[in-house]
Amino acid sequence: MPVSRRSFISALGAGGAAVLARPVLDWRGHESLWAFQGQAERRADRLLASRPGMVRLDSNENPNGPGQRVYDTIISHLSDSNRYPVKSEDDLIAVLAKLHNVSPANIILGCGSGELLRVAVYGFTSPTKGLVSPEPTFEAAANFAKFMNHPVATPKVDSTLSLDLNAMLDASKGAGLVYFCNSNNPTASVHSKSDVNSFVERVNRLSPETTILIDEAYHEYVDHPGYGTAIPLALANPRVVVCRTFSKVFGMAGLRVGYAIGQVDTLKKMTNYLLGSNVNQLALVAAAFTLTDTAHIAAEQKKNREARAFTRKFFEDAGYKVHSAEGNFFMVDIKRDAKAFKMECVKQNVAIGRQFTALPNHARISVGTMAEMKKAVPVFKSVLGAGVATSQQR
Questions:
Q1: How many other C-beta atoms can be found within 10 angstroms of the C-beta atom of residue 87?
Q2: Does the structural domain 68-292 have CATH classification 3.40.640.10?
Q3: Per residue in 319-344, pLDDT tens?
Q4: pTM for this one?
Q5: Contacts of residue 178, Cβ cutoff 8 Å, sequence gap at least 6
Q6: What is the CA 196 to chain-centroid distance, rounded?
Q7: Fold for domain 39-60+295-393?
Q8: Can you give the residue ranges of every domain in the chain?
Q9: Which residues contact 123 (CB under 8 A, 6 or more apart)?
């Protein structure tokens, strides 16, 4: 006898009906999160940037991509696309473990570092133990904590656009998680290894239950002589986790691979919330291969360094302040409304980063190829020379 949806739910009872309703509620929550994070506006921004003929300097991507050898690796594994990834996950973790001289148990994978930031918010924060996330910084962790109705403290960057570590320390008391992006997106400022170690030590003393997540997305682009990875600290300290991504120097932003390193028991607080098979088969083999292609990565670092220096020199010679450029991007004080400046550049087929509320007169410029920067600089010169309304005139 056919069973109607109504009779089926009736047979399940209230509990079963609640189970059926949950995906609907979850999707509505997803819509709320999408709106809260400004994803619709960001998607529109990226669609604009992806128009034919546009110079794309908006999203801190590697303009060169992962290189032909990675493409060849992906093509050679297309026949595995019909299988769920299992061994390839272990293979990538093994390569990472060897690279960082850690045990495979000290590594977890994510769908980009974005998934890892989200599960860290799940694992370490609560309605009574909030998140410390500077302003401005990469917003993913703070946006998700707010969506979860967990408290978020947002200490402002200092006058040099560096993270204010003293203010972050004060805000960390009783917090569940501190988000420390080093170098920081969007300001491109970086803190030395000794600064990071000292900060962690002080947080541990002030708030022993607080975890510090150190995001090293731009690690390979940093040239500051005092900088060093916090991975050894994460292995020694149960209150530290380090995140990395393949989206930047490795040129795989569209493939979505990231990883976190920490002590086993610390990572367990995150793994409970990870999606199963969260990294696709082709991304896994591509990531494992690119880690061994050190000559290609060195070449990418050199290209970025040269194009970054060329573009920074233009702004500084023109009288505009760039405090730091420890990444494949930098932020420049253009002394006028950054959103208006952006839209004028778009009219001339150059897309730059969005405006950040905390620094309305600063523009974030991603570094493209040298050829792209040579196209972009005359546009910047033209728009700045023509004048753009200040934030007070909006």
A1: 10
A2: yes
A3: 999 999 999 999 999 999 999 999 99
A4: 0.88
A5: 131, 132, 168, 172, 203, 210, 211, 212, 213
A6: 19
A7: Aspartate Aminotransferase, domain 1 (3.90.1150)
A8: 39-60+295-393, 68-292
A9: 269, 270, 272, 273
